[in-house]
Design brief:
alpha+beta, BirA Bifunctional Protein, domain 2, Alpha-Beta Plaits, 2 domains, 7-stranded mixed β-sheet, 4-stranded antiparallel β-sheet, binds adenosine-5'-[phenylalaninyl-phosphate], binds magnesium ion
Length: about 375
């Protein structure tokens, strides 16, 4: 915590942040020609469960609230799992358009595009009726709100034209952002999604190394959130994008662990004044991996994220990937067993088999002690 990589001069997360901010500042201005979006990049990542969940209408039994998903400090406070945690507070303060940048924390899978700490940028924009339908000469002929029903394209309180206009505005904003970052011929696709705080909702995927990489979630803000925050006369959209994912695609950074590297052979490649400078990351060392398998019996309350957490805590950035490759239930005893393949590779120097094996044994020992697993 507290590294604020997104604020660190010459860090790739700072470069991409500045590009995105420039995009919003150059293309979105208010009536006085000042930047429309206010920016917040130093809000503490310690938030209340109310901010992270309740203010966003996350139901009390939603899986994202599980202890195995997030990092809790106590029953009241946690490390934010997304920058959406600040939406409601900032809307309450009267803001109509804002960007929030920061570090977010999650227990998650261990591979090249997932890390327990990463950075998000939240964007929210609210509209009055005049603003949303500003392209129409006469807005008296369209209806902004109704008491209708919810379906795949809209919420109860929104008319179909309100919902479709918001969707178009949101998707144009993000599509133009993606073209601004990656050029006009980047391949992208919208995927229908679900979030408790937006409806309808989408995720944007971008082609990276031949595969679709999810880079952001977004949608039309639930009207109930706006009314609780005192902005019921407005409607709006919101998005939350993963800065590492975008930076990986933009600079061809192959592994998310590299963002935490303090090796000058990494950082020096991003030492430029102008964030628009074209940079393609050149790997400075190709170390060979050590691959170790482990299989064990698991207790009934076993959660995969708890095991991933132990792997990252003990193995640190030496662990490149954890893959579940066998799931077995004993036909008679019904005991469950799992087998994982752990790939160890140092990003900056070579790793001996012995060193990797020691870490591996440490991981297994911690699993036995903390999770009650039993090695097979
Ligand atoms: C969210 O966090 C929502 N708050 C986004 C949102 C905001 C939706 C506003 C609607 C309105 P999601 O869990 O999909 O959604 O994460 C958003 C992005 O964060 C992902 O698309 C991905 O780019 C990035 N991300 C998620 N998990 C990780 C991880 N473990 N490591 C790195 N990046 C991640
Ligand atoms: Mg997602």
């Amino acid at each position: 915590m507290g590294k604020n990589l997104h604020c660190k001069h010459n860090h790739p997360l700072n470069l991409i942040t500045r590009r995105i901010e420039n995009y919003f500042n150059n293309n979105y201005r208010n009536n006085w020609r000042a930047p429309m979006f206010s920016k917040f990049d130093r809000i503490s990542p310690v938030v209340t469960l109310t901010q992270n969940f309740d203010s966003l209408l996350v139901p009390s039994d939603h899986p994202s609230r599980a202890l195995s998903e997030s990092y809790y400090l106590n029953s009241e406070y946690m490390l934010r799992a997304h920058t959406s945690a600040h939406q409601s507070d900032l809307i309450k303060q009267g803001l109509d358009a804002f960007l929030v940048l920061g570090d977010v924390y999650r227990r998650d899978t261990v591979d090249a595009s997932h890390y327990p700490v990463f950075h998000q940028m939240e964007g929210v924009r609210l509209f009055s009726k005049q603003e949303l339908f500003s392209h129409l000469g006469d807005t008296s002929r369209v209806t902004f709100f109704e008491n209708g029903s919810r379906d795949a394209t809209k919420q109860e309180r929104h008319t179909i034209e309100t919902s479709l206009c918001l969707e178009e505005n949101l998707k144009n904003t993000l599509r133009n952002l993606a073209n601004n970052l990656f050029g006009d011929d980047v391949e992208m696709q919208w995927v229908d999604a679900y979030f408790p705080f937006t409806h309808p909702s989408w995720e944007l995927e971008i082609k990276y190394q031949g595969e679709w990489l999810e880079v952001l979630g977004c949608g039309i803000v639930e009207q109930e959130i706006l009314s609780s925050a005192g902005a019921d006369s407005r409607v709006g959209w919101a998005f939350g994008l993963g800065l590492e994912r975008l930076a990986m695609r933009l600079y061809s950074i192959p592994d998310i662990r590299l963002f935490w590297s303090e090796d000058s052979r990494f950082l020096d490649q991003f030492n430029v004044e102008d964030p628009n400078t074209k940079i393609t990351y050149k790997p400075f060392s190709k170390q060979s991996p050590v691959i170790n398998d482990v299989s064990f019996w698991v207790p009934d309350d076993f959660s995969e994220n708890d095991f991933y957490d132990i792997v990252r805590n003990i193995g640190g950035d030496i662990v490149e990937n954890v893959e579940l490759f066998d799931n077995f239930v004993h036909p008679k005893t019904k005991r469950k067993s799992k087998a994982y393949r752990i790939t160890y590779r140092h990003m900056e120097r070579s790793l001996t088999k012995r060193e990797a094996n020691e870490i591996h044994s440490g991981i297994v020992a911690a699993g036995v002690q903390q999770l009650g697993i039993q090695e097979r």
